[in-house]
Structures are given as C-alpha cells and as structure tokens.
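User: Fold this, then the next.

Assistant: Folding the first:
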Amino acid sequence: MLAKVFVTLKNGVLDPQGKAIHHAAETIGYSGFADVRQGKYFEISLNDAVTEGEARDQVERFAHDVLSNPVIEDYRVELVN
C-alpha cells in the first residue's frame, strides 16, 4: 500500500515562495495565473501486513506530528492499494 501526503499552507498564510513562482511565471510569458501556492508532497510505502485502517491512522498521525506544522499548514492523506 502507498500513502500519498499533500501538505499546503492554510488559506491566509503568506506564501513568499508561491509569490516568487507566480512572478517568475509571468516574467517568462505565462499569463492568466491569478495566484500560485506551493506545498510539499510525500509518498510513504507501507508493509503488506498493515491494514488500511492502521495505515490511515499511522499516516494521519505522522502527517500531523512530523510532516506538517498544523498551525500554518493543512494536509491531506490518500491511500492507494
């Protein structure tokens, strides 16, 4: 089983890297982008012995405790068999 974890800044949190990417995109000719927000993506391979429920519980806890800063970031976990 594979867990995919997407971590993004919460709405309202300043994203200077996203602003820099947005500016760079405009500079090289991309237009029509209203905003760019950057984030992080993780793939976690899980042992076959772990049930889907255990996997979701562990990965959710890991995403909250280690992969994200819950004060300024949101995260989303997807499990793929």
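Now the next one, as you asked:
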Amino acid sequence: MGVRVQLPPAAITAAESADAKLGHETVVLGMTELLGVVDAFVITSAPNTRHVRTLVEEIERGVKDAHGLAPVRVEGLADATWVLMDYGDFIVHVFLQESRDYYDLEHLWSAAPRGSWRRDVEHAG
C-alpha cells in the first residue's frame, strides 16, 4: 500500500549520512504535493546536542561529497535542539530527541508520503 515518491538524490544521501552516524528514526517525507516549494523533508534526531552537531556535519559532508551541494542556509546550530539545513529543493531537520517529540513534524505532515531511501529497511507503522 505504498505510494511511490520521487525523492531528490541528495535528500537520499542526507538520510543515508544521518543513518551512518546513528541518527534516530530517520525518515524522508515527500513534500512536493503538499508544499510545492520543497520536494522533501529529511527528519532525524539524536539524544544530545553533541550528536546533533555530529549529524549536521556528516550530512553536510555526505551531500557535498556526493552531489557538490552545500546548504543555502543552516539555522539552529547555536543551541542544536532543532537544526534546519535548507538545500533549496529539500530541507533536513536534525532534532534533539525531546524537541522532535515536542514539534512532531511527522504528525503535523502526516499526509506526506514517506519515501523509501534505504533498501534494507521497510518501516511498519
């Protein structure tokens, strides 16, 4: 019952980079139909601010190395509770776990289809 979602390749790389550094419950939401201005949200989280910063660095390095892209802007790095990395056609949200639970973007955007970004994982509910 999955909906096929066309994801920007760099968004997939961002998710893979977060996963490589143990980002928690990394998901990619297809946002094209809902927002029109951005194709995808990559959402991941970490248990502490040091890990949040590590995830941001790894995502930035992975996307740059694989696609030659740097974020247009990065917001929230000072307190590292919710870092937003704007790549233009997709946005990466790196949360401190308690901030992710509070803002609950997956629920807010529950109409957005989850994109498949990893072959070996099939999320059930």
